[in-house]
């Protein structure tokens, strides 16, 4: 008993009675009210629900059907929600017909550089600005980001360009300050299974971009999304950014097969990060085009005005003129698959 479907036109009183019944059984409920039907996702250990208890739920007023989901990720499952989730961020929708493009530097280095990059990517056609204020680095001696100062610069760039900003969280203690600045909060690959962090961002009303872990399976990735959604935040974006394999010719192996597979398994929007997927700027464009053809809802692409001097990931960053050319090249591909950029 994982999903309860109510009959069209069921009363609020019947819904309240059902929720009270579930609470008495030690279960919680997530109510999704669609245009035709109300669907209740049952949260908790439903394996302990007996057949008689399930039959009692079926017999309650307003209940049309009770469904068990074999998949361990209930709320993220396509079984829970048939329609694609669309997430609106400052009026820009991710998950709809238009493919959104998130662009910007790996790290916010100073105000002048981030303002310049923001203007360039907006001119090139980007719809969001990315930039790391808190940077997870393999070496403790590498540039770790500007922290709150970097968030100030991102906010200034948003005010000047109108681009909503995407930036990463590493520590739950930084959540309050990120809530003040970020439009989308990113969970990086290294934190995909930081369950405490996932639960914390699940309790806020802010879209979460969840990157796939370095060696994570699709199931593990979706279970991490479930952690966030179990706390009530259903605005989750799944970002494929390459996985670790035996291949060393590229930084990672960009798993584009994950895109159509996720479209079957989940209703959540799918984002592709070709920059981290390949780690080489001259391979970013072909993989970005392939991601569009595969059905991605958004792309996240690293762009820098002077990659040679970038504090991090310069080797995978496009110069603004190459980014603008890529945007132009992707438009007919998007059109061919019934989308637009």
Automatic annotation (TrEMBL):
Recorded GO MF terms: 3-deoxy-7-phosphoheptulonate synthase activity; aldehyde-lyase activity
EC number: 2.5.1.54
Top-level EC class: transferase
Highest taxon listed in the record's lineage: Bacteria
Domain DAHP synthetase I/KDSA: 93-333
A biological process term (GO) from this entry: aromatic amino acid family biosynthetic process
Family annotation (InterPro entries): Aldolase_TIM (IPR013785), Class-I_DAHP_synthase (IPR052899), DAHP1/KDSA (IPR006218), DAHP_snth_FXD (IPR041071), DAHP_syn_2 (IPR006268)
Residue ranges of every copy of the DAHP synthase ferredoxin-like domain listed in the record: 3-70
Keyword terms of this UniProt record: Transferase
UniProt protein name: 3-deoxy-7-phosphoheptulonate synthase
Species this chain originates from: Candidatus Nitrobium versatile
């Amino acid at each position: 008993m994982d999903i309860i479907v109510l009959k069209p036109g069921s009363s609020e009183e019947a819904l309240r009675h059902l929720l009270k019944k579930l609470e008495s059984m030690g279960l919680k409920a997530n109510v999704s009210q669609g245009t035709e039907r109300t669907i209740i996702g049952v949260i908790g250990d439903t394996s302990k629900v007996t057949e008689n208890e399930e039959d009692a739920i079926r017999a309650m007023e307003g209940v049309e059907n009770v469904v068990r989901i074999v998949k361990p990720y209930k709320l993220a499952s396509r079984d829970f929600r048939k329609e694609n989730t669309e997430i609106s961020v400052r009026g820009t929708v991710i998950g709809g017909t238009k493919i959104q493009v998130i662009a910007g530097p790996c790290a916010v280095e100073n105000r002048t550089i981030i303002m310049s990059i923001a203007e360039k990517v907006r001119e090139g056609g980007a719809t969001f600005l990315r930039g790391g204020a808190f940077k997870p680095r393999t070496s403790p001696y590498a540039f770790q980001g500007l922290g709150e100062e970097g968030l100030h610069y991102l906010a200034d760039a948003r005010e000047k360009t109108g681009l909503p900003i995407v930036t990463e969280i590493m520590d739950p203690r930084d959540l309050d300050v990120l809530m003040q600045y970020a439009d989308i909060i990113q969970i990086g690959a290294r934190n995909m299974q930081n369950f405490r962090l996932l639960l914390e961002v699940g309790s806020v009303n802010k879209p979460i971009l969840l990157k796939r872990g370095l060696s994570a399976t699709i199931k593990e990735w979706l279970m991490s999304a479930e952690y966030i959604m179990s706390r009530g935040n259903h605005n989750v974006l799944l970002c494929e950014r390459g996985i670790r394999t035996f291949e060393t010719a590229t930084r990672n192996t960009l798993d584009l097969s994950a895109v159509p597979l996720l479209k079957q398994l989940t209703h959540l929007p799918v984002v592709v990060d070709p920059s981290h997927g390949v780690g080489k700027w001259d391979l970013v464009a072909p993989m970005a085009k392939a991601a569009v053809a595969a059905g991605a809802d958004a792309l996240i692409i690293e762009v820098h005005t002077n990659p040679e001097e970038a504090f991090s990931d310069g080797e995978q960053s496009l110069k603004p003129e190459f980014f603008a050319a890529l945007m132009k090249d992707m438009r007919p591909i998007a059109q061919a698959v019934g989308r637009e950029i």
